[in-house]
Each structure stands twice: as C-alpha cells, then as structure tokens.
Amino acid sequence: LFKNKAVELGEKLLPAFNTPTGIPRGVINLGSGTSWSWGWASAGSSILAEFGTLHLEFVHLTELSSNPIYTEKVMNIRKLLNKIEKPHGLYPNFLSPVSGNWVQHHVSIGGLGDSFYEYLIKSYLMSDKTDDDAKKMYYSALEAIEANLVQKSPGGLTYMAEWRGGILDHKMGHLACFSGGMIGIGADDGAPEKRQHYLDLAAEITHTCHESYTRSATKLGPEAFRFDGGAEATATRLSDRYYILRPEVIESYMYMWRLTHDPKYREWGWEAVEALEEHCRVESGFSGIRDVYTMTVSHDNMQQSFFLSETLKYLYLLFSDDDLLPLEDWVFNTEAHPLPIIRKSCLQDEATQDKTVSE
To answer: For the whole prediction, is pTM greater than 0.90?
Structure first.
C-alpha cells in the first residue's frame, strides 16, 4: 500500500519538471499537473533548497519502482548545477527554471539553501559511497563555504555568515545549525589530511549553536542570531527572537554524539529537553514561543510537524544506543525520515541468485 502510494505521488510530481531546463517549479497542483513558482520567489525562480532536496527520495523511488525516470530527473538537476558558473564556487538560493541562470547572488547555508548541501553528502552515503559526483560537489561546495562564509567572532565563536552579492551579513539562522551534523558525517570521507579539521569545524559550529541556546533566558535558541555590534550568538532584532520547536541544533548534537561520544552532547540535549518541558509544553502538546529572551512565555499556539518527525526523533536517538538506526545502514532525509543504504554487495548477491535460479 505505502509503496504504491509513494510511486503514485512520485508520478504526480513529474509534470513540475516540464520546464526548459528540467529544473522543477516550486508548486504543483496534483490534480491538474499545473506547476508554478512561489509568488515571493525572485523573478519566478526555483529555490535551491527545494529543487536540490529531491535526490534521496527520487533515487529511492527508482529503487522501489524500478522506473529510472525519477533518478533521471534529479540527475538532470545535478548536471545543470555542475555545468553553470558559480560565484566563488558558491550556490546562490534562486535559479530561473526557464533560463537556467542564477537570479540574485544571495547565498545561505540556512533557509533557502540548507538542505541542498546536506543532500550532496547524503547522496554519496546513501549510494554506498559510489556516487562520486555527489562527493566531488559536496567537498568543493564545502571548500567555497569555508573560504567565503565561515567566520570567527571576536569572542572565538565559529559561525556561518550569509553572502549577499559579495557582502557578508554576519547572521546565522537556526536552520543553518544543521551544518554541524552535516560537516560531521562528511568528515570521514574528506581528504585524509582534512578529516580532523572537518570534525573540529563541525564541533565548533555545534558549540556556537549551543551558545545561542545558553545565552537566552529560556535556554532555547532564537530563529536567527547575529555577530555584529558587540552582540554574539544572540538575536538583536525583535523579529528573530522566536523559537518554533525547530530541530537543527539537536540534530547536530545527535550526529556529534554518534561520531565522538563526547558526553557534552547528551548534556546539551538534556538541557533542551528541560527547556522544552518548561517553556513549550502546553495542555495538548507543545507550542512554539514568541521570545526566547523572556521568562514570561508567550506561546504561538502551534505544534509544527517537524517537532514530531525531527526534534523528538533526534532527541530520542541522541539518548539511544548507536545500533538503533545505525548511521552505516540508514541516511535520514531532511525531515529525519530514515532511508536505507542499499549495499552494492547485496545487489550483486541478488543478481547472482537470480542467475542461478534462472539457470
């Protein structure tokens, strides 16, 4: 039943790819197959984190359905991205599905960009480390990120700034905090002389994100925090002070725990559990809060779906044994749904069995 539904949904998404470039539009009507771009997206463009975050699911759909079309669609996106000119090796957030050119040079590891990078390293891992294109793209993107976006604050905190046409905005979004875990899981397959460096970078970014939590009254982190005008890892704008039960910081704790078994990651996770219990638990579940810097809590009356699929799952995994959904057998998609790593050796065994049976 679930397999059939997955394939049916996959089929219904295909018309979104009918563009001059094969880059899908952002929104589709599943009944009519009509697709269009978000009204707020710059000049009818598609968004990097949306068209760049289909790879794991579509490749898996091909595995399930034996229909190569799904893999072809996402490989085509990757080919185009590989081919076009990238400013300083960076991938801007907006791309025209008609011309295949970047629209605006805004680069962010947070919202609009985030999961594209995550899916490069995860595509490599999910392919049982055979997808060399994904590997190459990931490490060169990471080099460009380090060269252009990674900064150290006067107080010694490592963070990822945003890039607007060459000008740095010294702000890091809560969404960008997933990158600690991402750089961590990619550390082992980097160049041998860079492996420790990547693990250290992952730990530094995760530490900065933890600081954004500890520097608030509620011990929960704001939507975005800044590193300018004397402030470090704190939201200076009223509009950035909310917390909507987001998982990214806890996600990095979970990966860093699995990779290093340093007890501080479980301690940090437990601090988050206590803060969630104290400030976000309401009668019917959990709610986001409007200002992490005040103890007079104002709830936003919403329990986001990612709270269940990610925040609680990552906390549960953080306190579980490593053999529960082990990282060598499973890759989590960007909403923390586990997808299996299909071992090439298993596929070969199957082929040999089939051959023997037919003989």
So the answer is: yes
